[in-house]
Write a structure and sequence with these properties.
flat, 183 residues, mainly alpha
Amino acid sequence: MVVSSYASINFSSIWIPRSCLLLLLGSSTTIPDIYQPALDSLYAWLRHSSLFTSSTFETWWTVVLYAIIEVSYTYRFGHNPHLRLANSGKNGSNSSNPIPKMQRPKHRLIEGFTYIFPLLLLDLTLIKKYAGVSVQEMALSGNYDLTAVTKTIHGTFLAPTLHNFTLSSPLQTRRALPVEPPT
């Protein structure tokens, strides 16, 4: 009888975060009213934060979260080789092939730049458009004169609008956000 090497893995490190996430997602979809007051307060505070209203916030937020998740998993699998799927051969026996080394995050700067650069370019040149934001607010965030709003800016997100490039405002640095918090 072959005993799997996975029997010795501590599954609480897997099931506790999954259970918490499932509980959070389940309760937020079935009874969202318990979270809405906290979300309203948080959004009101964030809406006045210069970091959150920055046009590049979403790009940096995504990259930071990805980096945190990747580094934590790289560390976990680097220090626990028995958790790696590549470590087990057929029928749970160890493979004779060496495990490929995981690339360190500091060596991934070029890859990160290749991913981030186009997104930042779009963030800094296109006007961000969100539901619930008036065309006038979008025009102000895009450095447009309010008299030319109806001719140059469309309220729909399907029609991209370039930032009005001037010496005083060469890049789109601020985004217009809706007053109402997400629900």
